[in-house]
Design goal:
Elements: E1 3-5, E2 12-14, E3 18-19, H1 32-45, E4 49-51, H2 60-71, H3 73-78, E5 80-85, E6 87-89, E7 95-97, H4 101-115, E8 122-125, H5 134-146, E9 153-156, H6 160-167, E10 174-178, H7 190-196, E11 200-204, H8 238-256, H9 260-269, E12 275-277, H10 284-291, H11 300-309
Parallel strand pairs: 3-4, 4-5, 5-8, 8-9, 9-10, 10-11, 11-12
Antiparallel strand pairs: 1-2, 6-7
């Protein structure tokens, strides 16, 4: 497995990681046994970058990763663990964001307990609290590094201008953003800003929440999934249109002898040496298909063929609903 740097942190990770949101029931029912099978397959393939969060299944994802680290001691030495905090609820139970020092450190302490570790390799602010200057939040994160609770830090879903402000205070190891053939917004400045700041761009949902796979989630499953049942791309008429438009991509992948998901991951990797895709799955077997992308070096001709079947702007429907956009920084 090829390696990539987590920005200026000095840490190296596998060029493809595992997004552990799927260790909750986000994309369908799963179990700790399934999550363990994914982590076993990851270790066998040389994947050592695991991305989770305190809110994935309200701690369930972190507990699954922690149980694996406890039962497989060599995994803790081998694996780099990333987690996040900053999303919470107010007194009325409504979603909100808190980047206060005491909140971030308190949530981090809970994550460390669930993971069974003294320090995580990467800690993200999951969403920015708009009223709090990012410079202040960066200083909070730098103090957590000095305390030895985290090795490096980053931000999720921020704009290039926010990255520049944070990086002026302290090196930012990573910015996490949705990035795939289905979501190309980072090409409007974030990918470039990360490269300029020596910051890794960690790409979540690199297979377009299943649209860029050989077996997309069936439309019949969407009403059972809280996030997707209100996500525009999975609503009529967008769902059927996105399936139709990705049929050519599946055909191209088959012609190239690669799983469609692997080709989608390979495309992400080809966008820059600082891009690290973190696909999620509930199956060890599916993980192997995703990781096929790490074995492919796409040339200019390959990228042109992919662009021909999925040109910029092909996706039907916005990537988030109005409520899902809360806390995400838009730009350009």
């Amino acid at each position: 497995m090829r390696r990539r740097r987590l920005g200026a942190s000095g840490q190296e990770v596998s060029c493809v990681g595992v997004g552990a949101l799927s260790f909750s029931d986000f994309y369908g029912a799963t179990s700790e046994e399934n999550s363990r099978a994914v982590l076993v397959a990851a270790m066998e393939a040389g994947v050592d970058f695991i991305d989770t969060s305190n809110i994935y299944g309200m701690g369930r994802s972190e507990r699954a990763v922690g149980a694996f680290l406890r039962d497989v001691p060599e995994a803790r030495e081998a694996m780099k663990i990333a987690t996040k905090a900053g999303i919470t609820t107010d007194a009325g139970g409504r979603r909100c964001f808190d980047n206060a020092p005491e909140h971030l450190e308190g949530e981090l302490d809970g994550s460390l307990q669930r993971l069974g570790v003294d320090c995580v390799d990467l800690f993200y602010v999951h969403r920015r609290e708009a009223a709090r200057p990012i410079e202040e939040v960066t200083e909070t994160l730098a103090r957590l590094v000095a305390k030895g609770k985290i090795r490096a830090f980053g931000f999720s879903e921020i704009a290039p201008s926010s990255l520049a402000r944070a990086a002026a205070v302290h090196p930012v190891a990573a910015v996490q953003s949705e990035y795939s053939l289905a979501t190309r917004a980072p090409d409007l400045g974030l990918r470039q800003a990360c490269a300029a700041a020596d910051t890794a761009l960690v790409a979540f949902s690199p297979v377009g929440r299943s649209f860029l796979t050989d077996r997309p989630l069936p439309e019949s499953a969407v009403p059972e999934l809280a996030f997707l049942k209100v996500n525009p791309r999975f609503q009529p008429p967008h769902y059927a249109e996105n399936i139709r438009r990705t049929d050519g991509f599946r055909a191209l992948a088959a012609e190239m002898g690669v799983p469609a998901a692997g080709l989608a991951v390979a495309w992400c990797l080809a966008q820059g040496g600082h891009v690290i895709p973190i696909p999620g799955t509930r199956s060890g077997a599916h993980l192997r298909g995703l990781l096929a992308g790490a074995e492919i070096a796409l040339g200019a001709g390959d990228l042109a063929r992919i662009e021909a079947v999925l040109p910029v702007g092909w996706t039907s429907g916005d990537r988030y609903s109005e409520a899902q956009w809360m806390g995400v920084e838009r730009y350009c």
